[in-house]
Specification:
Number of helices: 17
Oligomer: single chain
Radius of gyration: 20 Å
Helix content: over 70%
Structural class: mainly alpha
Strand content: under 5%
Distance between the termini: 71 Å
Order of helices and strands: HHHHHHHHHHHHHHHHH
Number of domains: 2
Largest sheet: none
Length: 306
Amino acid sequence: MTMTTMTATTNPAILTADWRDFVALTKPRVMTLVVFTGLCGLLAAPGKIHPILAFTAILCITLGAGAAAALNQWVEADSDGLMKRTAARPLPAGRMERQSALHFGVGLSFFSVILMGLALNWFAATILAVSILFYVFVYTIWLKPRTAQNIVIGGAAGAFPPVIGWAAVTGDVSALPIALFCLIFFWTPPHFWALALYVRPDYAAAGIPMLPVVAGERETRRQIWGYTAIMAVAAFAPVLLRLTGALYGTVALAATLVFAVLAFRVFSSLELEPAKMRAERALFRYSILYLFILFGAIVVDCWIVV
């Protein structure tokens, strides 16, 4: 048997993994919203930035988010294999070695942070590094397997992009990016728990203590409604603090009312069958659109003021 044949026999993942599997490691669908909020933070920031530097900043945010997602899948390869919605990912499906995912994630992390520091500024690079480390170590490794409140604290990881985008332009952080951070932070629980309600069997099978698994559907619906109220306050904070104008305020009012109606439908629902949870699915889908709408309105409002 030749060395080539021996390698192929003992390590078939080398032959089956391709570029699409590495792209899949970055969770491109999830990354879309991350990149958009980072772009909005950059566009809303005062001052000017060269288009090439702006592109580089967004590229770094994209690569950093992809790196965190890859490392997340490296850590959770075993539990992903126990859940229907994640079993087809490259690692649990056996198309890639875990070490390849680790090297890919670590390499992207270092590259994105160093490029951000060299091309933009080291303050933005530091925040990017903190966001990656927070997602991997605090959320994925520490919180997610241990507490039902994992997504509450861990939601901070997804709230960093607009702060990074802002810092890439200004080299500092002020009230508006902090307000945007808070908006995403309080938006995350109702967004994610809506999903968790109708994929609860998956989390239960994998032994992950998501709120619907630990506390049940009724308590999860109650907390979705409670966090929606907190999120609504965060959504209006830019207006109340006079950081934005009437355009954003009007859009935020209309969009948040729709969110509240959908959240109330979830709160009042008695449906226990995951396949029939239409209210929960509707809230989850709209919550993604909601963030796109509000962050787009922030940018337009800031440009009008300027």
